[in-house]
Design brief:
seven-stranded mixed β-sheet; globular; single chain; about 230 residues; Rossmann fold
Length: about 230
């Protein structure tokens, strides 16, 4: 049987910025699932996935576009290298408080997965579980190479036009993301120190392109995230 899930789109003031949110009501008693998008993501780029997820699980689903993304407030300054720390330690907890979301499951992709790890390491008592797709725990060269390639594509192909379908301020969105990843300080970015504090169940997937040595390091890092029921 198909259930109709009520959905609410609203802007929420978080950390002094207007953030667009989408909340899909639950049809069951499960926890809220919060979706955390990738580096160039937004609510719109999730397409119908939030609705399908709500339908399949019966859970409430909360989706938001981070500052500078989608229809959230336009990025007005250069991002610091620590921007994901700020998102996980300041923005996400404030958003959850304002929307009265307690102990969610965090489902994060790429940068969103890293933000979920930071939040779970900083506030372990506030997370029910983690589902992570290709989160960054440290910076890998193949990832930086893909950022350089994205810069070329944005400047020379129809990539900018395609991305503009999902972002109100596509130039600011792209360059805020691209510039910080290519910052000379960014290769030293690392969140392994957050992992030992995480005490919820965690399911994580990593990219196949990771080198053998990096793969070993990623595995060692993942073992530090001790999942407990």
């Amino acid at each position: 049987m198909t259930h109709i899930h009520a959905a609410e789109i609203r802007d929420v003031l978080v950390d002094g910025k207007q953030i667009e949110t989408l909340r899909i009501a639950a049809t069951g008693d499960g926890p809220t699932i919060v979706l955390l998008h990738e580096g160039l993501g937004s609510i719109a780029l999730w397409k119908d996935f939030p609705h399908v997820l709500a339908e399949r699980t019966g859970c409430s689903v909360l989706v938001y576009s981070r500052y500078g993304h989608g229809n959230s407030q336009k990025q007005a300054e250069r991002r610091p290298v620590t921007f994901m720390h700020h998102e996980g330690e300041v923005v996400l907890p404030e958003l959850l408080d304002k929307l009265e979301v307690e102990k969610p499951i965090l489902l994060g992709h790429s940068d969103g997965g890293s933000i979920a790890l930071i939040f779970a390491g900083r506030y372990p008592e506030r997370v029910r579980g983690l589902i992570l797709e290709a989160p960054h725990v440290f910076v890998e060269e193949y990832g930086v190479a893909s950022i350089r390639a994205a810069k070329v594509a944005f400047e020379t192909t129809d990539f900018r036009a395609k991305l503009g379908r999902y972002h109100a301020n596509v130039d600011e969105t792209f360059w805020a993301w691209n510039d910080v990843w290519l910052d000379p300080e960014f290769p030293r970015w690392n969140i392994e120190s957050y992992l030992n504090a995480i005490c919820c169940q965690c399911c994580a997937y990593r990219a196949k392109k990771t080198s053998m040595e990096r793969g070993r390091r990623w595995t060692r890092s993942s073992r530090r995230c001790r999942a407990r029921s």
